Amino acid sequence: MLDFLRRSVGATKKVAKSKPQAGKTASDNAATDQAQPERHKASGHKAARPKPGASLLPAVQRLSRDQHNISRKDISPNALKVLYRLNDAGFDAYLVGGCIRDLLLGLKPKDFDVVTNAEPEQVKQVFRNCRLIGRRFRLAHVVFGREVIEVATFRGHHSGSDDDEDTTPKAKTASSSEQGQILRDNVYGTIEEDAERRDFTINALYYSVSDFSVYDFANGLQAIAERKIELIGDPQTRYREDPVRILRAIRFATKLNMQIAPATAAPITELAVLLKNIPAPRLFDELVKLLLAGKAFDNFMLMRDTRVLKQLLPQLDKLLKQEPEGKAFLLATKALQDTDARVDADKPVTPAFIFAALLWYPVERRSQALVIDGLSEMDAMNIAMTEVLDDVQRTIAIPKRFTLSMRDIWALQSRLTKRAGRRAFKLLEQPKFRGAFDFLQLRAQAEGGELTELALWWERFQFADEAGRLQLINQLGKDGIDKGPRRRRNYKRKRTAE
Ligand code: ATP
Ligand code: MG
C-alpha cells in the first residue's frame, strides 16, 4: 500500500544527493523523471516573504497525481465543494494535515480540514452556510447538514523580532505567555509559513484540486515511510508554544502505529507539567480523543510512562505509583481494553464510563476514610464523589452530563450489594442499572473474590424468570449477602481452627 511512498521517498533522497543541473529548474527535472517528486518553492502560491531567521523547512516537494494514491472519491464531497468554490472565487485552497496523512496511509480520515489564503470574512462571503468561530484561532465553519468543513486561513509568523511593516497589526492579533505558550494566533501568512506552524512533519501535507498534487513541506512523506512522529522545528520551543502537542504526539504514535522520533520524545517527561496551563475544556477534548478512538489502553500506558498522567489525573497516578499492578491499574486496564474492543466493533462508548473507571479507586479510598471518620456509608460516598470530581474539574472539564452519569454508576455500586426483599427488583428497573452492572463486572474482573460472586448473581437474576428471581433472593441472607458461600466460608474457618 505504501509502495508509492517508498518510491517517492527513495527518489527524494536521490534528488537531495544529486547536484542540481545547471539551467534546469526543479520542475524541468520532474518532467523528465516521472517517479521523482518535484522540489520547488511552492511556485504559483503567494511567495513567502523573506523573514529574519531562515525557514525551518526544506524545499517543498510536489507529488503530481500519478505519484500518489489520493483519489477524489476518497474525499468528502462537501470538502471538495469548498475547495472548488474557493478556487472559483479566486483564492488558493488546500486540504491539509491529518486528512492527507491518513489518505496517504490508506486510512479513513476523521475530518477534512481546508486551508486558504482567503481571510475568514472573505470565506464567509463565499459561503452562505458559513459561521466564524474561535478566538485563539479564528476559523470559518462551512456547514453541510451534519458535516462541518473547517476552513482556516494560512497562519503566519508571530511578530517577535520582525521589523517589517506588519509588526503593529500582528502585535494586536497574536499573543503569547511568559512560558512561550501561544495564546492568540490570528496572524495570516503564506502557505510556507502555515506549513511551518503545523505540529508534525507528517501533518504539513497539502492537497490541491487545481492540479491534484500533494505538497509536502517538511519531508512528511519520508517520515510516513519511516513511521516517525517528528515535530517541525525545535521540540522544546514547539511544546512550549502549545503543550497539547505532547498529547498529540502520543495519540498519533499509537493511532498510526509509529514511533515518536527521539528528539521529539526526549522533552515530553520534563515538559508534561506545562499541561497545567491548558484550559480544562481543551484538555477534556484532547483526553476524549486519546481515550475514545480505539487506542485508549496504549495511550494510557504511554501517558503513565511519560508522567503526562500525573498532570492530567494525579489522583489515579498516585495510586498507580503506590501499587503499579494493583486494582486501580487492573480496573483501568480492563475498562480501556474493553473500550478499545467496543470502538473496534463500532459499539457506542461514553467518556462517563471510562472516567468512572479511572477515578473509582480514588473515590472509594476517600469514602472509606470518611467512614472511618464516622460518616454513614451513604454520606461518605456522596462527599467522596464530590471531592474527587471537584478536584478533577480543575484540570479536565468533564461536562456535567457525564459527571452525573459517573455519580450514578458509583452510587449504585453499594446498592448492588443490597438485594433482599424487593430491592433487587427495584434496582433492575432503574434506567442506570445497565451501566452500573457493567461497571460491577469490570470491578469483579479487577478484584475477583466476592465481587465475582456478586456480578454472577446479578447476571443470573437478570436472565431468570420471576420464580427464578425469587429463588435467588431467597438464597440471600437478611443483609442481601448470598447465604451459600458465607456458610461455606464459616465451615472452612471452623475446620482449620480444629
Ligand atoms: P485527527 O483529525 O486524526 O485527530 P489531525 O492531524 O487531522 O488528526 P486535527 O486536530 O484535525 O488533527 O488538526 C488538523 C491539522 O491542524 C493537523 O494535521 C495539523 O497540521 C494542524 N494542527 C492541529 N493542532 C495543532 C497544534 N496544536 N499545533 C500545530 N498544528 C496543529
Ligand atoms: Mg483532522
TrEMBL record:
Respond yes or no to whether keyword Nucleotide-binding is given for this record. yes
Report if keyword ATP-binding is assigned. yes
Instruction: Recite the UniProt keywords alphabetically.
Output: ATP-binding, mRNA processing, Nucleotide-binding, Nucleotidyltransferase, RNA-binding, Transcription, Transferase
Protein EC: 2.7.7.19
Q: Which GO terms describe its molecular function?
A: ATP binding; poly(A) RNA polymerase activity; RNA binding
* One of the GO BP terms on file: mRNA processing
Per the Swiss-Prot or TrEMBL record, the active site comprises 111, 113, 199
Poly A polymerase head domain segment(s): 93-229
Similarity section? Belongs to the tRNA nucleotidyltransferase/poly(A) polymerase family.
Task: Supply the name of the protein.
Answer: Poly(A) polymerase I
State the species of origin.
Answer: Rheinheimera nanhaiensis E407-8
Q: What is the lineage of its organism?
A: Bacteria, Pseudomonadati, Pseudomonadota, Gammaproteobacteria, Chromatiales
